[in-house]
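Thread: Modeling a multi-component assembly for a lab meeting

Hi all, long-time lurker, first post. My supervisor asked me to bring a structural picture of a complex we are working on to next week's group meeting, and I have zero experience with this. I have the sequence lines for every component (724 residues in total). Could someone generate the structure of the whole assembly? Inputs are pasted exactly as I received them:
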Amino acid sequence: MPQKAKTTIKDVARRAGCGIATASRVLNNSGPASADVRKRVEKAASDLGFSFSAAGRALQSRRSMTIGCLVPSLANPVFAEAVQGIQEVLSGTGYQLLISCSNYDGAADNQAIETLLTKDVDGLIVTMVAPDRSAALRLAKTRNVPVSLMFHDPIDGLPSAHVDNFEAARDVARQFAKLGHKRTAFLSLRFASSDRSRNRYAGFHAECRALGLCDPALIELTEAEANAPEKLSRILAQLDSVTAIFASNDFLAIAVQKAARLIGWRVPDDLSVVGFDGIEIGRLLDVPLATIETAPEAMGRQAAATLLNMTQGVAATQMPPLPYHFRTGATLARPGPKNHDDDQVAPWPPSVLSLKTDLKQG
Amino acid sequence: MPQKAKTTIKDVARRAGCGIATASRVLNNSGPASADVRKRVEKAASDLGFSFSAAGRALQSRRSMTIGCLVPSLANPVFAEAVQGIQEVLSGTGYQLLISCSNYDGAADNQAIETLLTKDVDGLIVTMVAPDRSAALRLAKTRNVPVSLMFHDPIDGLPSAHVDNFEAARDVARQFAKLGHKRTAFLSLRFASSDRSRNRYAGFHAECRALGLCDPALIELTEAEANAPEKLSRILAQLDSVTAIFASNDFLAIAVQKAARLIGWRVPDDLSVVGFDGIEIGRLLDVPLATIETAPEAMGRQAAATLLNMTQGVAATQMPPLPYHFRTGATLARPGPKNHDDDQVAPWPPSVLSLKTDLKQG
DNA sequence: GTACCGTATGGAAACGTTTCCAATCTGAAC
DNA sequence: GTTCAGATTGGAAACGTTTCCATACGGTAC
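Re: Modeling a multi-component assembly
Sure thing. I ran the full set together rather than chain by chain. Output:
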């Protein structure tokens, strides 16, 4: 135990031979002080290796200088990058980032937000399962804690840094149509807990209809199916007449390719695949992935900037959706000869789940 | 401004008609209280929607219930997963995670740790450029803030959750040798700021020597080179006689494959490629990547568990290195015919940087 | 010399907890 | 009816800041 108790501003004041108030004023540059005492205080502080106690400050100022962030998972690079973007903006502002993951669990979401609120965060940046009916989010509002969303469509007066998933997905449908695809499918993980996926499907579905394509098959995969190429290929095999698949994220798109090849389908000749997100690695692949490129880091930056404004008392302002960009790639092409005779529309095999309703946002 | 000031325990006590001390005891279950008053306090608390102020508690208890974490970047999934692992262990313990990124910058590292210390964190989990000579880390020691490392070899009495990079890299050399490779290269990003890369190279180099292979060429890439396949292929082109490349991480390994194909080399026939880390996507690729599989999430879990022990006053204990596993893949094979006549060792082209010294740790 | 003003200064209150300790109360034992 | 142990209870101090306010001081203008 070589180290005594933490040195406080009281110690500094004593050593500098002045009052606590004066020491505080000097150290914070927050009031008058003679050059003489100023020097003494500064010396004392550095001699003692003084540094402020965050707890003392937080208590007195009623600000923790801490921002809470909730994302589904950091294992998903999209969210990891977004957090990175938040960091970028926060660094240098004096705010620190408190982070929490829910693993895509709606109950954990609310629990996590409550815990964050307990920690007296000065603001929240949130991506969660159901922000529109979150009790915890309402609690934040009650407590006057500003909230800024990421990835969601703006909801309930809460500003959100997002891309327009619906519109982006329509783009994909147009690309498929342009190349002559008729039969498509939408593959998703956790459809129920991701409004992003739902909006993408809704946009894709709407535009397929508008362009006269068949309604896309909606396939929701389990975690296990997505990660086991053999299982995935068994599912693909049932989609015999489909010539183009829109995967709700890039990982899935990559897995689909592998699964397709396992059952002897060539990509893109027998099956076109388009992903979503635009993760870096997609570009570096041997067969570059066609995808909707988004900028998660920019989303993080925007969410943080918006929140910072709110903490200053500025009213919440909703920025326009962030841009996305259709990046074409070698996984996308005209349907090959195998399917050319398939103009006649056959019913889906019964095992394929197909959602006809428009699921756009709620 | 519908909301008045935050409700405090004082309000609860008043409403319950008891003293503050009693209310505190009830709410914390930390002392005796009659069933009667207990009920009243609980009702008052719930009526008022009371929740403790973290600041008040932190000040009084001298514990912030907060753990600081510094990693180079969350954009690297290895670190993101490690943080995810930390979260897993921390969740439910009452500790929250304060996180910071340095972008692989040694100065930012120290700055970030100091900021974290300023926030009165109860412990630190750190991956940084130079933990062995970090002033900020020494400061943490002075302040009696426990520190646990991730990914580094244990240093200076600081426990670290890590894999043995040196040994793992020797495995790679053995695999290459077993298949008959003679000329190899080690590709790395940020060699100077990553002791992990240095240890991997050192182990690879040592084992190549021990097995009678040529000393591996050491190629340090810039960020730009690693992300632009054309640039990378220009570099590869200079490594004409090399038949096997060990990339210091999987992303690089994937980029190398693409670059190789750009100049007409087949993988693995003309060039074998092995990565490091074992990121999930490597398995799902069309051509599955050979790599050293590690468990970043387990590293995070171990680091967090160790730290938690330390905060309880238990002396720091160094766990054995975490296991790794050589995962073979379609990117690794015997050298093809093209290089079979290459038993005669020729000098490296002058443009290729080759490090002969053993760089193992420091 | 007095009245006055602006600048430095420090005492003390307040922020929301927890906890020590003394005071009160209960009922049982005498 | 007293006395005493044990169970409850609440006042107050302490944690480290910041900030309000009053005081003290130097000088300038009369």
